[in-house]
Amino acid sequence: MSAMSMHAEPRIPQRVFQRYVEQFKAIRESEALKRIRQRKWGKVERAKSLIQEDTLRELTLAQAEELYRCLPVPQQGRSVFLTNPIEEIREALSFLLYEQLMYEIRVYEFLDQGGWLKGGNLSLAAALLCAKDSDLYGPISSNTEKGLKVLEMVPIFDKNESQAGRFQKLQETLFYLYRISGLHDLRETDDFLEALAKGILKPSAG
User: Fold this and answer.
1) Domain count, the chain
2) pLDDT (0 to 100) of residue 192
3) 26 and 53 fall within a common domain
4) Rounded average pLDDT per 10-residue block, the chain, 206 residues
5) What angle in degrees, to the nearest 10, is found between the helix axes of 163-181 and 186-197?
6) Residue 14: other Cβ atoms inside 10 A
């Protein structure tokens, strides 16, 4: 991950931010959060095994479908993703995950350079990178931006911002949020944002 120069600071009062974090930590073992974790992360180890470099080289269409089902992404895009030829899926995923280039370049090629894969959007790229290395990358979904909006941490995007540029600003903001919140990792940071987005966490009165 490059230097964190593009992240957004929380613009809500510090005491409100801390209340949100404390509430989240207090309900870590609640049924609501267990359901969130199971839905997003219950099959992520299987996804990680399917994106091993050797496995990707021989990936079948059935395995590509299984991989998509195991990722923390909205499943509405699965049918479009599976219309890509399997050779292109193998090539694009191998490039994104294993090409020896800076991640910003890999993401730009995957997302912006002519649209490599149908259904190959920002959410899919983030989920794949998170499955491979959750110490560096977090998922990006509609809940990500909704949660960041609650914290007033949504990055400022340029008018014609590339998808890769949006990806980088969001990832740096997620990493910064993880560091200042004291949460376990980027996966838990994503759970925190989803809890905010869904109104599970509330600012205390006063």
Assistant:
1) 2
2) 97
3) no
4) 57 93 95 93 96 96 98 93 96 95 92 83 96 94 96 93 94 96 95 96 70
5) 100
6) 9
Residue among 205, 139, 150, 144 nearest 17 (CA): 150
Name the burial class of residue 187, with classes exposed (0-12), middle (13-18) and buried (19+) by CB atoms within 10 angstroms of its CB. Answer: buried
- Answer with the one of 132, 152, 186 that is the final residue of a domain: 132
Integer angstrom CA distances of residue 95 from 81, 108, 116: 17, 11, 11
Last residue of a domain, which of 76, 104, 132? 132
d(C-alpha 179, C-alpha 106), whole Å: 25
Is 25 found in the same domain as 78?
Answer: no
Residue 97: inside a domain: yes
Asked if the structure places residue 113 within a domain, the reply is: yes
Where in the sequence is the domain holding 169, given as residue range(s)? 14-41+137-197
Burial 127-146 (b: 16+ CB within 10 A, else e): bbbbbbebeebbbbbebbbb
Domain assignment present for 2? no
Q: What 3-state DSSP class applies to 36?
A: helix
d(CA 25, CA 68): 30
Q: How far is CA 104 from CA 110, 141, 167, in A?
A: 10, 19, 9
Token digits for 85? 């030829």
What pTM does this model have? 0.91
What is the distance, to the nearest Å, from the Cα of residue 104 to the centroid of all Cα atoms in its chain? 15
Instruction: Say yes or no: 37 and 49 in one domain.
Output: no
